[in-house]
Amino acid sequence: MQQHLFRRTAAGIGTGISLLLLQAGAQAEQAHEMLSGFSDIQKNRPDIIAQNLQDVKDIMAASTPADQTAAQDDETHYSATQIAGPALGGLRALNPGIDGTGWNFNDVAAAAATEGKNFYNNPRPFVADPSVHKLPRATGSGSSFPSGHTSKGYMNALYTAWIFPERFQQIMTRASEYGLHRIVNGVHYPLDVIGGRMVGEWSFAGVMAGNGWQAGALKNTAQSVRADMLKGCNGSSIAACADGGSSDAFGNYTKNRADWETRLTYNLPAVGPGDKPAVVPQGAEYLIMTRFPYLSADQLREVLRTTELPSGIVLDNGEGWARLDLFRAADGYGAIDADTTVTLDAARATDDTQPGAGYNASDIWRNDIGGSGVLTKAGSGELTLTGHNTFGGLTISGGTLRLTGINEYSRNVNAGGGTLVLENGSLRTQGDIVTSPGATLRLSGGTLGSENGDLRIAGRTVLVGSGEINVAPGRQGSISGEVSGPGGLVKSGAGTLSLTGNNSYAGGTHVTAGRLDLGTSVAAGTGTIALDDGTTLGYSDGITVLNPLLLNGAVNLAVDSGEATQAGSLSGAGTYALTGAGRLSITGDASGFSGHTDISQTSVNVTSALGGSVSVRDGGTLAANGPLTATVDVGRGGALKGSGSTGSVHVGNGGTVAPGNSPGTLRVLGDLTMDKGSVYRWETEAATGLSDLLSVSGKATLSGGQVLHAGEAGTYSPLATYTILTAAGGISGQFDGVASDYTFLTPQLGYTPDSVTLRLVRNDVSFASVAQTYNQRGVAQAAEHFSPLGALYGSLAVLNAPQMRTALGSLSGEGYASAATALSENSRFLRNAALDRLREHHGSGVNAWVRPWKSDGTLSGGSQSAGSLEGSSSGIMVGVDGGTDGGFRAGVLAGTGSSSWNAGGGSTNSDDHLFGLYAGGQSGQVALRAGAGYSHHNLDTRRSVSFEGFSEQEKAGAHASVMQAFGEAGYVMETGALIAEPYAGITAVKTRLGSVSETDGEAALRTAGGDQTSTFSTAGLRASWSLTAGRVSVRPYTDVAWRHVLSGVTPAREMTFADTGAGFRVRGAPLSADAAVAGAGIELADAGKETSLTLGWNGIYGENGRQENAGNLTLNVAF
C-alpha cells in the first residue's frame, strides 16, 4: 500500500513559538492491521452492528440542547487549544492565546484515518438508517470508520497532556467527550469513535518514538509553553495554577473516570475471550512518560500492562491498542507483580518548566493495586496510595509513603527510613510490620495491624489524628519509639500491645479489645485511658501512671510482678478486676467510679477516694488507706486491710479482715458482717503498745469467725487489755474463738454491747518445755522468775519455740564457763616452749633465748550444751638455761601476751603474764623432761543479749590464773644424721576463774569464782635430721602425737541473774577429748651452735571441731 508522509507546523501559545514536527509517516497496512477487528465485526457480528446503530439513536435521544450545541461547536475545533483547552482548568485563563486557534498540533493521524475510511467504506448512521438525522451544523460524508475528528482530537489531546501532565486525566476525559460529540452530531457510531481513539494514540506514540521525547522541538516547545504559563502563576506551580476550583468543567474525578470508562467500549459486546495476557504495544510508554517522570521505560510499560482492559473487548485484535486505559494508567500501577523500587527525588521538582517535574516531589496512585511483589519507596519525594491495595508488601527507605485507602498485604511492611503515613485508611498484613529507629510513622484516623506477624515500631510515631493499632489474637505488638502529636491511640484486636517509650501524645488512649501494657510512666501520653469491655491494662514494675482511667465495661488491671501506681483519676460505671502477682497502688481520685472492683491474686493499695463496690477473693488483698466509700465483700482467700475507710463490709467464709498496716484503725462507714469461717487478724506493736481496731459506724453482726492474734516480737505486757472492735450501732453475736501465734500466751475475748476486747494471759507452757540443751533448760527455769511486768519477761513471753531457744542461749552467759577451756588450751604455749628447750642440744654452757608466737583456733560446742569457741593468742617469751656435759639442762622463762575469744554471744580480751621452770636430761637413750608454769590473766568481757524484741549490752571485768605441771619421757634413737624419739607425756592444768558481776542490764549475770582442773596424756613420735652446709648447720624436724584428756573435759559455772537472784548452772565449750597434735620446723645454727634460729609450727586437730594453728620463732644465743 501507498505510504503517506505528513509534515506540519504548530505555532506556540500566544508567543508565536513555532514547532517543526519530524516526518510522521505511517503505513496504511499497519493502520489496517490495528483496526482489523472491525472487518470481523462487519462480517460476523450483526448484533454488534445493530447495537452500534442503536447506541447512536440512544445517545442522540439522551442528549440535551447544551450537549448538541457543544457537539456542533466541536465540528470546527481542530487545534489542540480548542480540543484540550476546556480541560486545562485554571491554566486556560492565564493566556488569551490558549483559547485561540494558534496552537495547532497538526493532523498526523489523518492519513491512517483516511485510509481506514476508504478501506472499510462503512456508511454513516444517517445513511444506514434514514430515521437518524444529523444535527444542523454537523458535517460528514462518505465512510464513517474510523472517526477522523476523534483521531485528531486524541492526537492533539495527548500532546497537550504530554506538556501538562498535571491535567492528564481531565484532558483524556475531554478527548473522549470530543469523540462522543461525533455521535451526538449523528455522523459517527461508537465503533468509529473507539477506532479514532486507537488511531490517535497509535499515531502520537509513533511520532514521539520517532522524534525522541528528550530532544528536539517537542521538548523545547513544551518547556517554552510551561515557562509562559509560570509567568502568570505568580510564584505558584503549574499544578496549583491548573486547579480550576468549582468552575472547573472537568474537576470531578469520579465523573471523569465514569465517563471515560463508559466511552472506552460504549458497553458493546465482547468479541473474544477475556482471559488472555495483557499486551503493551510498542512505543505506548511514550503516552504517559511525562505523567511519571520518575519511572523507567520498562516501569511505564508495566503500568500500562497492569491497567489494561481485559482481552476480547470490541476491536481487540491482540495488538493491545484497543485495551489501553490511559485514564487508569495515569493512576499508577494496577498490580505489583514483581518486587519494584520507585524513586521520587524531590530535588528534580524544582524546574517546573519540565513537564511533570512536580511529580518527583509528590504523586498519587489511585488504583486498586494487586499482585504479589513488594513495593519499595525510595527517594525524598512523597507517594500516596488511595486504593484498595492487595500486593505483597512495602518497604520505605526514604521520603514519605502515604496510605489513604485499604491496604491488605501478604508480606512484610518495613520502614527502614523515611515516613510512613496512614491517613483515614487501613494497613493490614500477613507478615511483620517493622519501623526502625530512623523511620517515622504518622497516623491520622488509620488502622494498622498484622494478622500473623510481629508488630515492632521502634521509630518515632506521630498521632496527627486518632491512630488505631490492631494486634491479632495470640500476637504481640510493641511500640518502643517515642509517640507524640495531638491525636489519640486506639488499641484494637485480641492480642497484646506494649508501649515502652517516653510518649507525649495528647489525644488519649482507647483500648477496644485485647491487652495494652504500659512499660513507662508516660507510655500512654497525657490523655485519658479508656478501657472497653473485656480489655486489660498492664502495668510494669515501678511505673506511676498519671493518666485518668475511664472504665466502659468489665476490664482487667494487671500488675504481673513488682509494684505500680495508678495516680490518675478513675471513673466510669464498669467493672474492673485487679489481677497479677504484683501490687497496684491507686492514689488517683476514684470517687467518681460507681462500678465494681474485683481483686484476686494481687495486692491493691488505695490511698484515695474509691466509690462503687469491691470484692476481694482468691489471694487478693485490698489495703484501704484512703477515704474509700465503696462497699467491700471479702470472699474466700481474700483479705481487707488498711488504715483508711470503707463502706459496709462483709467478710465471708475464708475471708480475712486485718485493720491497719501493722497496726492501725480501719473505719467502716456502714455495717460490718463477719460470717462463720471468716478471720479477724489482729496485731499489736510491742514498741508502742498500739493495736489494730475495727471502728464501725453502723452495726456489727458476728455470725462466728475466728480472731487470730499476731503480735510482734518485743517488749510486751501480757496483762494489757486491748479493744479490737467498736460498733456505734451495737454488736450482735460473737466470734467462734480466738487463737494466737504466741506459745506462752493465751488470748481471751471480752464483749460489751458496742465493743470487743482481747486480753493475753500467761499460760502453763513453761519456757523450759521448748529447751533442747542443758544450758537452755537451766536458763529457762531461772527466767521464769523475772517479773511479768518487766521488759525481759514480756519479750520472752511473746516468742515462739525457735525464737525462745535463741533467746535462752543469748541469756546463758556460757562464755564465762568457756573461758576455762580457752585458758587451758592456751597454757600449751608455755609448755611447748619449755619442752622444746629441753629437747634441743645447746651444749654445756649458758644459753639465752627469745620466742614470739601467734595462734588462731576454733572449737564447736559439740556437747549440745554450749556454742562454739573461737580465739587467738599472741605474745613473747624469754628464758635462760644452762647444761652440763652429762646432758642435764635446767632453766627459767617468763612472758607476756594477749589473747581473745568469742563464745556464747560474748567476747573476752585477756592480758596474759607467764612464768615457768623446766629441767631435764638424758642417760643413754632415755630422756626425761619436766616443768611447771604459772600465768595470770586480766579479763574484760562484753556480752550481747539480743533476740526478737529485746537487746542489751552487758560487760564485766575479772581475773584468772592457770597453774600447770608437765613431764615426758622419751627413747632417743640415732642413726647417722637421723634422730627418732618415741615419747609419752602427762600434764595437769588447773584454771582458777575469779568472780564476775555484770552491770547495767536486766539480763545481767553474776558468778562466784571457781576452779577447773584438767589432765592430759600425750604419746607420739618426733624426728629430726642434722645437715651441714658450709659453716651452717640445718636441722629440720617433725612431731606427730595423740592427745587424750583424762579428766576435766567440760567446764561449768554457777550463774545467777542479778535482777532476780535466780541461779542456774551453765556449761562451756568442752576440750577436745581426743586430738591429733602435729608440729614441724627447721633450726639454722652456726657451726659451733653458739647462735641458732628456729622457725616452728604446731597444730591441734580434734573432735568437736577443734582446730588451731600456731607459729613461733626462737632465737638462741650461747655464752
3D architecture notes:
There is one protein chain. This protein is α/β, with parallel strands linked by helices and 1119 residues long. Among the domains are: 19-270, Vanadium-containing Chloroperoxidase, domain 1; 612-757, no CATH class; 814-1118, Lipocalin (Beta Barrel). 19% of the residues lie in helices and 39% in strands. It is built from 20 helices and 73 strands. The strands form nine sheets. The chain has a 19-stranded parallel β-sheet, with no helix packed on it. A twelve-stranded antiparallel beta barrel has the order 56-57-58-59-60-61-63-66-68-71-72-73, surrounded by four helices. The longest helix is centred in the N-terminal third of the chain and has 22 residues, at 190-211. The radius of gyration is 55 Å and the shape is elongated. It starts with a strand and ends with a strand. Residues 1-27 and 96-106 have low confidence and may be disordered.
Distinctive features:
alpha/beta, 20 helices, 1119 residues, 19-stranded parallel beta sheet, single chain, Lipocalin, 12-stranded antiparallel β-barrel, 73 strands, Vanadium-containing Chloroperoxidase, domain 1
Topology readout:
Blueprint: E1 3-4, E2 9-11, E3 18-20, E4 26-27, H1 28-34, H2 37-44, H3 46-62, H4 65-73, H5 80-84, H6 110-120, H7 125-128, H8 148-163, H9 168-184, H10 190-211, H11 216-231, H12 238-242, H13 253-265, H14 297-307, H15 326-329, E5 340-343, E6 362-365, E7 374-378, E8 382-385, E9 393-396, E10 400-403, E11 406-409, E12 413-415, E13 419-423, E14 426-429, E15 433-435, E16 440-444, E17 447-450, E18 455-457, E19 460-463, E20 467-471, E21 476-479, E22 483-484, E23 489-492, E24 496-499, E25 509-511, E26 515-518, E27 529-531, E28 536-539, E29 544-545, E30 549-551, E31 554-559, E32 563-566, E33 570-572, E34 575-579, E35 583-586, E36 596-600, E37 603-606, E38 613-617, E39 621-624, E40 631-634, E41 639-642, E42 645-646, E43 649-651, E44 656-659, E45 665-668, E46 672-674, E47 679-682, E48 693-696, E49 700-703, E50 706-709, E51 721-727, E52 731-734, E53 737-740, E54 745-752, E55 755-762, H16 774-783, H17 791-797, H18 801-811, H19 814-826, H20 828-839, E56 846-859, E57 869-883, E58 889-903, E59 906-923, E60 926-947, ...
Parallel strand pairs: 5-7, 6-8, 7-9, 8-10, 9-12, 10-13, 11-14, 12-15, 13-16, 14-17, 15-18, 16-19, 17-20, 18-21, 19-22, 20-23, 21-24, 23-25, 24-26, 25-27, 26-28, 27-30, 28-31, 29-32, 30-33, 31-34, 32-35, 34-36, 35-37, 36-38, 37-39, 38-40, 39-41, 40-43, 41-44, 42-45, 43-46, 44-47, 45-48, 46-49, ...
Antiparallel strand pairs: 1-4, 2-3, 51-55, 54-55, 56-57, 56-73, 57-58, 58-59, 59-60, 60-61, 61-63, 62-63, 63-66, 64-65, 65-69, 66-68, 67-68, 68-71, 69-70, 71-72, 72-73
Helix pairs in contact: 4-9, 8-9, 8-10, 9-10, 9-13, 16-18
